[in-house]
């Protein structure tokens, strides 16, 4: 079988890595890796390939950033040519980014079998671009690989036949299991953005005594009013417990455009740093007291690590991290009281969902072999 695997944006890379490793040298499946180029910076893309040992993509569509319509259209145009040239038997997409939906749409219309890893997740919030991508992708995919039972239930409710659904666990946790020990040997030395200073989290400085933040959802950071409110809250919390924030380019750009840097600079323990590579980021999270985030993947990684996670969103497409894991969904005005609870040692803990154990890529390859 000739199988094209698609990767486009940062959260795709740690899902594609274990699959590429499990398919290496496979005697019946020929894997072709296509990078759409949705993310392109070394910090958002290149260093993940290097650290996770992902082979150089066979094809890079180099689409870059643009509006949703333009970016999606560019991916479709480029990917159609790839499918015409390569004539794959199947296309495997991961996650919920624009590249996921765009490539599924192309392959499906060309009659190529499509496989969606991370199918069935639903936030039921169509204001999130990712939710639209999930719905579109699952409406037309042929094979559905899920990370948790709630995703299976969602797909069944949408009339997907049970025999097309395979709950096989979490590829992101495969990457975490494979790399945690190595990640913990990296340094935690960071140059602060816009300040002529470096911090180093060392044996007695800060270990276990800081929070990690990530915020980049358009709903939180694209409007001046909500971003200003967030910056004020981050500042107040950082006076109780230091916060380390590897800033996503979308958030950084908005901070500059809305003139919020001066406010940030008033807080000595609000540490803004560049986006981190995979290893350092995992190291940073694994030594933290808690995570404060609006991301999807971090809810899963903290659940595996059993570190309290405060997710500042009204909903999550990953509810298993709340039912079983250490994740809590909170509102903006609950951040301070929730952080106080964690500081008092009363943060949420949980257990690891089924099959989140490092064996997902192997299970997926077994399913692929039977297609
Ligand atoms: C995308 C995904 C989101 C995922 C996130 C992880 C969609 C709809 N969204 O959102 O689900 O959680 O990636 O990062 O697919 N930029 C750079 N360098 C890069 C990439 C982007 O500077 O390598 C800047 C660009 O100015 C761009 C902005 O970041 O306009 C946002 O990038 P984009 O890919 O549009 O969406 P993300 O917010 O990253």
Could you characterize what this model shows?
With 371 residues, the chain is of the alpha/beta class. The chain has two domains: 2-170 and 356-368, Glycogen Phosphorylase B (Rossmann fold), CATH 3.40.50; 184-343, Glycogen Phosphorylase B (Rossmann fold), CATH 3.40.50.2000. It is built from 16 helices and 15 strands. It has helices spanning 10-23, 42-51, 68-86, 98-109, 129-140, 149-157, 171-183, 218-221, 224-238, 249-257, 261-265, 278-286, 297-305, 320-323, 335-343, 360-369, and strands at residues 2-7, 30-35, 59-60, 90-94, 113-117, 143-146, 165-167, 189-191, 198-200, 211-214, 243-246, 270-273, 290-293, 309-311, 327-329. The strands form three sheets. Strands 3-2-1-4-5-6-7 form a seven-stranded parallel β-sheet, with helices on both faces. The chain is globular and about 55 Å long. It binds uridine-diphosphate-N-acetylglucosamine. Uridine-diphosphate-N-acetylglucosamine is lined by residues 9-11, 38-41, 44-45, 65, 96-98, 129-130, 216, 248-250.
């Amino acid at each position: 079988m000739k199988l094209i695997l698609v990767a486009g944006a940062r959260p795709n890379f740690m899902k594609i890595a274990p699959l590429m490793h499990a398919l290496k040298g496979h005697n019946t499946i020929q894997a072709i890796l296509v990078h759409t180029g949705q993310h392109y910076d070394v910090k958002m893309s290149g260093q993940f390939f290097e650290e996770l040992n992902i082979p150089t993509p066979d094809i890079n569509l180099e689409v870059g950033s643009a509006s949703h319509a333009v970016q999606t259209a560019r991916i479709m145009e480029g990917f159609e040519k790839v499918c015409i040239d390569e004539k794959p038997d199947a296309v495997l997409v991961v996650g919920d980014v624009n590249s996921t939906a765009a490539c599924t749409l192309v392959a499906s219309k060309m009659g190529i079998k499509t496989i969606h890893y991370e199918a069935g997740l639903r936030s039921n919030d169509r204001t999130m671009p990712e939710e639209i991508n999930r719905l579109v992708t699952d409406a037309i995919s042929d094979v559905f690989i899920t990370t948790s039972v709630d995703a299976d239930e969602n797909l069944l409710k949408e009339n997907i036949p049970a025999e097309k659904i395979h709950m096989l666990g979490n590829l992101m946790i495969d990457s975490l299991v494979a790399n945690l020990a190595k990640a913990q040997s990296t340094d935690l030395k960071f140059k602060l953005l816009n300040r002529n200073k470096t911090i180093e989290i060392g044996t007695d400085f800060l270990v276990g005594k800081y929070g990690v933040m990530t915020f980049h959802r358009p709903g939180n950071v694209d409007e001046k009013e909500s971003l200003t409110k967030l910056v004020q809250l981050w500042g107040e919390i950082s006076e109780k417990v230091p916060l380390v924030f590897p800033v996503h380019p979308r958030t950084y750009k908005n901070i500059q455009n809305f003139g919020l840097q001066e406010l940030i600079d008033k807080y000595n323990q609000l540490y803004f740093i560049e986006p981190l590579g995979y290893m350092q980021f995992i190291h940073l999270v694994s030594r933290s007291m808690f995570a404060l985030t609006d991301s999807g993947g971090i809810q899963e990684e903290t659940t595996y690590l059993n570190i309290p996670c405060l997710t500042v969103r009204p909903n999550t497409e990953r509810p298993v991290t709340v039912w079983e894991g250490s994740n809590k969904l909170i509102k903006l005005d609950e951040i301070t009281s929730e952080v106080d609870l964690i500081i008092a040692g009363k943060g949420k803990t949980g257990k690891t969902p089924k099959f989140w154990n490092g064996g997902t890529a192997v299970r997926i390859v077994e399913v692929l072999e039977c297609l």
